[in-house]
Design a protein that fits this description.
CATH architecture of the largest domain: 3-Layer(aba) Sandwich
Shape: globular
Largest sheet: 5 strands, parallel
Distance between the termini: 16 Å
Order of helices and strands: EHEHHEEEHHEHEHHEH
Number of domains: 2
Length: 218
């Protein structure tokens, strides 16, 4: 039997950072669901599908086999057996992913693939609907959050460290707007699963959050 850890939460809560560290500590596969959606988007682009053609997106997405494995310690996203790590981070793919990820059949297809991956491997998976939709029977469920102000400050620090000019108030406004959209979307809205443990990282370090989640796995 595989062991499943589901981490959900709003944008900027640090889900991916925490999930990767937890996976490394446990020796599990970190399932980057966002990368899987990007792989699907790349597949659709490769098939000549327009981001506006919902009918074609729904029909064509069934032909994509997407999974994740580790090679020499690196996470590799495989699309129909091919490593697509080097081609799924482009702006074109990102734009397609933003559109195709909203499509019900795309979400159904990827949810099925994610469930299969978790059935056969010990995994840590993060997202918006992991504990409620993708892995409703996960062994450990965490709802990771932080105040909008804290999440905005983290994002501000990240961007300024890269030399980018930004407005922390605008960042916080965008985060609040994103939260509202995620919580009220029609398909798989963001919400805390009834049996998930709430972890508010507003006043916690990354290591403290990781330790708290690892304690839930015992």
């Amino acid at each position: 039997m595989s062991f499943q850890i589901a981490i959900d939460g709003p944008a900027g809560a640090g889900k991916s950072t925490i999930a990767k560290k937890v996976a490394k500590e446990k020796g599990y596969i970190y399932v980057d669901t966002g990368a899987m959606y990007r792989a699907m988007a790349y597949y659709l682009i490769s098939c000549g599908i327009s981001k506006d053609d919902e009918k074609a997106i729904g029909e064509k997405c069934e032909g994509a086999e997407i999974t994740i494995r580790y090679e020499n310690g690196e996470q590799v996203v495989l699309l129909n057996g091919q490593n697509v790590n080097g081609v799924i981070r482009t702006e074109e793919v990102g734009n397609m992913a933003s559109c195709s990820s909203k499509h019900p059949r795309v979400r159904e297809r990827l949810t099925m693939l994610q469930k299969e991956l978790a059935r056969t491997n010990d995994v840590v998976m993060d997202g918006r609907d992991i504990g409620t939709v993708v892995l409703p029977h996960a062994d450990v469920k965490v709802y990771l959050t932080a105040s909008a102000a804290v999440r905005a400050k983290r994002r501000y620090d990240e961007l300024t460290a890269k030399g980018e000019l930004c407005d922390i108030k605008k960042i916080e406004e965008d985060i609040v707007k994103r939260d509202e959209q995620d919580m009220n979307r029609e398909i798989a809205p963001l919400r805390q699963a009834e049996d998930a443990t709430l972890v508010d990282s507003s006043n916690m370090t990354i290591d403290e959050v990781v330790t708290a989640i690892l304690a839930l796995c015992r």
